[in-house]
Amino acid sequence: MVEYTPPYAEYEFLFNEVFDVYDSISGIDHEEFDADFVRMIMEGWGEYCTEVLLPLNEIGDREGLTFKAGEVTMPTGFVDAWKEGVEAGWYAAICKPEHGGMGLPHVFRNAMDEFAISTNMALSVVPALGLGVYDLVTGHGTNELIDHYSANLATGLWCGTMCLTEPHAGTDLGIIRTKAIPQDDGTYRVTGTKIFITAGEHDLSDNIVHMVIAKTPDAPEGTRGISLFLVPKFLPKEWESGGLEGLSQELADARNGISCSGIEHKMGIHASPTCVMNFDDSVGWLIGELNNGMPLMFEMMNRERLATGMMGLGLGEIAYQNSLAWARDRRQGRDLAGVRDPAAAADNILVHPDVRRMLLTAKVNNEGCRALGVWVGMLLDQMHSEDEKVQERAKALIALLTPIVKAHFTDLGCETTSTCMQVMGGAGYCSEFGVEQFYRDVRISKIWEGTNGIQALDLAGRKITQNLGRNLRFLMWPLVEFIEENRDIPEMAEFNKPLHQGVRGLQQLTLLMVSQGMGNPHFLAAGATDYCRYFGNIMLAYMWAKMARVCIQRPDSEFHQAKLASARVFFKRIYPETVALAATIQSGHKHLMEYPEAMM
Amino acid sequence: MVEYTPPYAEYEFLFNEVFDVYDSISGIDHEEFDADFVRMIMEGWGEYCTEVLLPLNEIGDREGLTFKAGEVTMPTGFVDAWKEGVEAGWYAAICKPEHGGMGLPHVFRNAMDEFAISTNMALSVVPALGLGVYDLVTGHGTNELIDHYSANLATGLWCGTMCLTEPHAGTDLGIIRTKAIPQDDGTYRVTGTKIFITAGEHDLSDNIVHMVIAKTPDAPEGTRGISLFLVPKFLPKEWESGGLEGLSQELADARNGISCSGIEHKMGIHASPTCVMNFDDSVGWLIGELNNGMPLMFEMMNRERLATGMMGLGLGEIAYQNSLAWARDRRQGRDLAGVRDPAAAADNILVHPDVRRMLLTAKVNNEGCRALGVWVGMLLDQMHSEDEKVQERAKALIALLTPIVKAHFTDLGCETTSTCMQVMGGAGYCSEFGVEQFYRDVRISKIWEGTNGIQALDLAGRKITQNLGRNLRFLMWPLVEFIEENRDIPEMAEFNKPLHQGVRGLQQLTLLMVSQGMGNPHFLAAGATDYCRYFGNIMLAYMWAKMARVCIQRPDSEFHQAKLASARVFFKRIYPETVALAATIQSGHKHLMEYPEAMM
Questions:
Q1: B68 and B167: one domain?
Q2: Shared-domain flag, residues A170 and A276
Q3: Based on the domain organization, do B89 and B202 belong to the same domain?
Q4: Is residue A26 located within the same domain as residue A71?
């Protein structure tokens, strides 16, 4: 019953009109990606998502996973779908040509992510993890590790995981207990239990390459003593370049000492194995420097956080498409201002202002996030620019925007799927119509890769003051300039004025957070979540004003006029929440911290 | 893993200190219910809920229902639990003594509802429906129907349903197609299909008594042509008082022409059968007058709406209790202001302001709703007062408060379960810890018994202007008086001032809604949801100020000081959303209604 059309036209608008995407990637070794080529790739991927992934989405939810004797079997059809993607080269697209990829820029990959998430969130996580491991190995591994792992990780022939959480240590990784004992041959033996490991075990691929954080026996306390290890499910058959002379022959190609002792039963993403992984004297190789595991892990984590943000958008989009289709068909009641369709027993429910309020809020949330997603994609590419200034700016903005995208997009995604369910009434609650699955699936995105509360603390407690405040200035300079440029354009007033007000508010709130937070970190932490949401609103307001700036020049085009209408919905219906957020941030921490704990 | 303690102390505080519950029921034939007796009843019921219903809740979710050959089998243990409740007389408590009940006042029944919802929402719906049918039969049935049905409905030996929705008609009941053909013997033959019928078929009871809305052949168009019929699963064996002479002997005690052709697969309340019911020339009896079915149906519906509101509270409460217990145990990170527990590897997460923000928001939402629930319960009793003034005021206030309680409590319940899940991180998303079930179960409460959008329209478009505005005046008089009384009490300023501001805002917004709405109903409908939420905030602010008024007099008591702390959390963290709501209400309807439909 579920329908889905990839939002190609939306992306073309953003790539070509709102942002100068093709210009932005020139000079970053991506000249071959012109609009025609990108359209072809996007449509090919869209077809794969719609025709291969989407039909499996409900099957995966209903059937779930089978766990037996340490092995996880994916739901019917998943292995074939995965292999089809691997063989077509889809999963390698963003990787280097020497590893079988096509060097696709991040900005397009981000867009393609949206389609995969919409059509099969559970499966879409697997390539994201594989690519995270690919980046770590190619960026920080020895040449031998790169040779052995990069190509197979790139294509998806082998999959990857990120093993951080332990039963007693989730947010607080400083207290992990997994140990890594150095061996004479240069390898390590890793022992410990990791939980909540997505795709820790499954039958999609021949090998699974785990990135495990652990501590060596004499490591410093806390996170400064964490190192990162590559621990493969199957040990290498042969070690071509001689870097592993010590690995005795009997271990070659053998199963490493890793076992999956169970999978979690979860509210959603039933087709995504969440595993308890036991590392028992497993052979592992150090990635990067000893005791430098946290920054490396965060390289991967930050990329996953942006991908997680896109989950909010992807599920928000497919929920919207289905509830809109429902609303177009469903006839209940009459337009309060007068019967619209006298021939029928009732008008369709789009005549009701409250139904429009719900659908348009959903639509506008999606459109705003998509625009910001494109900008973030561009910045990810620019982080690799040869122009140092471009690179510096991109890195600073990505640092700042990562927690906002992760937290705000996923908060909105949860709200949007709920709103779309509400549009459909009782049908929305029934499995038959799909939206309830999206509502369950998207909920994890607020939790994993660092809860949204952690994102907010990262933003308020670290990112805004990082680099002596340069992160923030890289954002504020062009933003203030944009506001200034549009000040005298009458058609822009309805968008530019509230943006201006909001930005002023953000500056004041930032000052408050920083100044109060220095004296009392509780103040900063108590306001962090609301501050992050305020900031998210400002970013979306900026995106909407940018889009409006383009669209006021196209009075003839239905598409562009609808985008202006969307911008209005944003500023009138969604953006006013900033006023309330400013008040709660200012209310401080005392009423929270002075609450008698025993009486909670 | 799930734990639960009925909030007895909270109710004692509300019954005895905040409201004068025992005074309010005197003169309504309830003198025997003194505090000791009520405590005994509450504790007995609490024990039944905790020991019998709670252990089945997760089983019901996991096992679900079996549908086979038109019959629905309840999950393991449900039939026994139900029978135990019936035999103990629990379900009849509120009914008249002559029907096996004890005439328990509504105010206590409302409180007891909360416990049942917390411990087993799926099952808690069954007695609510049965009592709704009981009220309709005893209030509007012939003596013969009363004699035959009331006692069995009261005790729960027989169950009841409300059959409204049809595949094409949910919100819009004016277009139903179910027909009722009058027979010479005074009965009707009912034919049609009803969907989303909760407890339409199951094995809990020997008989199921359906309240069905249908149209007679010559009925007027729309809702003015709807009549209400009692249609039992099994026809009466003997009709004692001769009112049914025409019913031929071969039909007696026979299965009526009713079949269940399927049950829905839903996101939650897996142990609650949601049935497609086919009425095929079924024998039915008219309840009340011909073509007067809607007001009668609404009598039952309004009671169910209040009960649905309590679902938001019940699930919010058990979610809170479990996430609090988790937070007390869970150790992650350190207090930002300095290590609290140096002996442990980490402090418990209650030291983190953002965790407190989440837990306290949840707690305070629950406490505020509970207070308003008690007031509503008192008003339900006062609707039966012999003092006509008391009765009139109670009816007006119930009319006004019903949509607010239904919509606002369930909105908050969905938010609270989500917040509590967030506190627990990944564990919150795993079935093992229970909260994810509450998150799924509570979501239906925003949809059924009239979606929350419909509640908002009922409030804004009907209830505030009904009785020439008397509904609203019955609320405003004491509210304004309360504000006046507290104006000069310094300790009340932090609560009384924002309440005063909010009430002024409500008056202005109400004027705006009514004046603009007269000219353009789209304006009113576009703002209705936000208006309802604004109103909900005012009601909870009123409750908090009332509670604070009591607590400032008890500086020595930990309990009362914690309530003052709760009141502060409400006014500082939750209440400020009213500022944003005022803005969105004022933003009107144009940006919604002018959005080009084809471009949605």
A1: no
A2: yes
A3: no
A4: yes
Domain boundary among A276, A291, A306: A291
Q: Is residue B358 part of a domain?
A: no
Residue A31 lies in a domain: yes
| B515 Cβ contact partners less than 8 Å away, ≥ 6 residues apart | none
- Tell whether B408 is covered by a domain: no
Last residue in a domain, options A235, A266, A291 = A291
User: How close is the nearest chain A Cα to the Cα of B70, in Å?
Assistant: 20
- With bands split at pLDDT 50, 70 and 90, how would you rate the model's confidence at B254? confident
B153, B160 contact by CB (below 8 A)? yes
| Residues contacting B160, CB < 8 A, separation 6+ | B129, B130, B131, B132, B133, B134, B153, B199, B208, B209, B210, B211
Nearest CA in chain A to B583: A576
Which domain, by its residues, includes A472?
451-595
Residue of chain A nearest B176, judged by CA positions? A345
For residue B337, give the nearest of A359, A521, A596 by CB distance.
Answer: A521
Q: Can you tell me the distance from the alpha carbon of B202 to that of B208, in angstroms, rounded to the nearest whole number?
A: 9
Supply the pLDDT for residue A25.
84
Which residues of chain A fall below pLDDT 70? 237-253
**DSSP designation for A449:** S
Q: Is residue B13 part of a domain?
A: yes
User: Are the C-beta atoms of residues A347 and A334 closer than 8 Å to each other?
Assistant: yes
What whole-number percentage of chain B has pLDDT above 90? 93
Encoded tokens for A117:
């998430």
Question: Could you tell me if A167 and A278 lie in one domain?
Answer: yes
Do A466 and A576 fall within a single domain?
yes
Chains A & B: contacts with CB separation below 8 Å: 260
The residue from B17, B31, B449, B597 that is catalytic is: B449
* Closest residue of chain A to B422, computed from CA coordinates: A447
Residues in A touching B121 (Cβ below 8 Å): none
pLDDT at A84: 97
How many whole angstroms from its chain centre is CA A63? 26
Q: What ipTM was estimated for this complex?
A: 0.96
A412-461 pLDDT, tens digit per residue, is 999 999 999 999 999 999 999 999 999 999 999 999 999 999 999 999 99
Looking at the structure of chain A, the number of domains it has is: 3
pLDDT band at B375 (very low <50, low <70, confident <90, very high): very high
Q: How far apart are CA B381 and CA B377, in angstroms?
A: 7
Active site residue B87: no
- Residue B600 and residue A446: Cβ atoms within 8 Å? no
**Contact: A578, B580; criterion CB under 8 Å:** yes
Identify all chain B residues contacting A168, using CB atoms and an 8 Å cutoff. 331, 345
Alpha-carbon gap: B341 to the closest alpha carbon of chain A (Å): 14
Least CB-CB distance to B345: which of A175, A358, A599? A175
